[in-house]
Amino acid sequence: MRAADIIIKKRGTGNQKGQELSQEEIEFLVNGYVDGSIPDYQMSAFLMAVYFSGMTFGETGILTGCMLRSGDTIDLEKLKGLKGPFVDKHSTGGVGDKISLPLAPIVASLGVKIPMMSGRGLGHTGGTLDKLESIEDYNVNLNEEQFASIIEKTGFAMMGQTEKIVPADKKMYALRDVTGTVESVPLITASILSKKVAEGSDALVFDVKCGKGAFMKSESDAGQLASFLVKTAQAMGKSSCALLTRMDSPLGFKVGNYLEIEETLECLQGKGPADVMELTYALASRMAVFGGMAKDTEDGIAKCKEAVKSGKALSKFLENVKAQGGNPDKLLGEQGKRRSKFKSELFAKQDGFLTVDAYKTGIACINLGVGRNKSSDKVDADSGIIFCRRQGDFVKKGEKLLEVYGKSPDALESGKQQLEAALDFCEEKPEEKKLVLKEIK
Prior knowledge:
The chain is α+β, with helices and mostly antiparallel strands. It folds into three domains: 3-54, Transferase, Pyrimidine Nucleoside Phosphorylase, Chain C (Transferase, Pyrimidine Nucleoside Phosphorylase, Chain A, domain 3); 76-332, Nucleoside phosphorylase/phosphoribosyltransferase catalytic domain (Pyrimidine Nucleoside Phosphorylase, Chain A, domain 2, 3-Layer(aba) Sandwich); 342-426, Aldehyde Oxidoreductase, domain 3 (Alpha-Beta Complex). 47% of the residues lie in helices and 16% in strands. β1 and β2 form a beta hairpin. 53% of the residues are buried.
C-alpha cells in the first residue's frame, strides 16, 4: 500500500471525483503519519484531497476512530468507578461565547457528570482554557487521575488536551492551519469528535454557529457540519444533538478572558445577559435530558433556572474553582474591580441604531491582547471590552458605547481603531433574528 495511491484515489483524476477510501487505507495514512513514516507533504496532499472531494459519514467515522486510537483515552469508570452517562457540550466558536463556563456548573448541580476537554483561542474566537486561566492559580493541565477525581468531587472538570490524547489530531491540525484546509467538514468533525470521545463522554450536545463571527458563515454550511457531527457521533455509539445558533454580533456584554469569567459569575448570580442565558439554558436542558435528570427540554430548562435561582449552580462553580487550584473568595472579591490599567472608551459618532460585527470585534480583541496573532503569543487576562450599548440599540451622538481595555498603550490604540470599524449606525432598526435557529438530531 502506498500513500500516493491513496491520495490519488481520494483526489480523483480529470473529471472523475475522488473515491471512498477503505478502513485499511485511512488507517495506513493516519498511523503512518503519527509514527513518522508518512511525511508532512503527503499528509498535506491528503488533507487537500479531502477538502475538495469530501468524505462520506462512514469515512468520517473511520477517520475519527483512527485519530482516537492514536493515543490514550480516559476511562472514568475504570479510574474512579464513576457511573455515567457522562455528558459534554462543544461549540464551534464565537466572540463573547462563554457558554461552557456557566453551563457546566448549572448542569452538574442537577447531578449530571461532565468531563470537559476544552481548547484555547482559535483565530478570532476565544478559548475556554484561556478564560479559565485568568482565574489566579486555576489549573487546566490535569492528568487523567486528577480529571476523574475532580469530576467525582464537583461533578465537572475542565482540562486541556494532553500530549498523549489524540496525537494524530494535534499533528493534523497543525498542518490544516497552514495548508488552507481548516474549513473541511469531515476534518472538523473528526478533530472535534476524536477529542470528545477520548475524554470519556457518552453523550454530546453541539452548538454549531453560523454568521459573521462564525467559521461557518451560512446556515447551510453550518447545517452540514451539524449533521456530520451528530450522525458520526451516533455511529460511534454516542447520544447526540446539535443546535444551529447565530453568531453575527458578540454574545453578552463582555468579551475578554477575565471579563468573561466575570460575566459567568453574573450569569450564575441571576444577572446574566438575556442572550447568554437563552443559549445556556437551551444547551444545558438537552444535556440534562441526556444525563437522565430531565424528562424533556422544557423540564430541563425549568430545572436549570431553579439551579441558578437557588444558588446551587454558583456554589458548584466555586467548588470547581477551588478543586482546580483557584481561590473562590478572591475571585468573588475581584468582581467588578479587576481591569487593565490601559483603558479607553468609544462614543457614538452619530445618531442611529447600533450594529456590531462579531468578526471585526474578535480581530480587534486579538490586538488588545485577548487572543493570539501566532501560536507562541501569550494572552492577556485583563484585556477586553465591555459593551454599554449593544446590537439594535438606538444611540445618540456622543453616547458611550464601549469601555476598551488593552495589554499596553500600543495594543489599546490598535484595538480601539479596529473596534471603530466593527461599529456601524443605521437609520432603521436591524431585524431581530432568532438566536437558536434549529435543532438537528
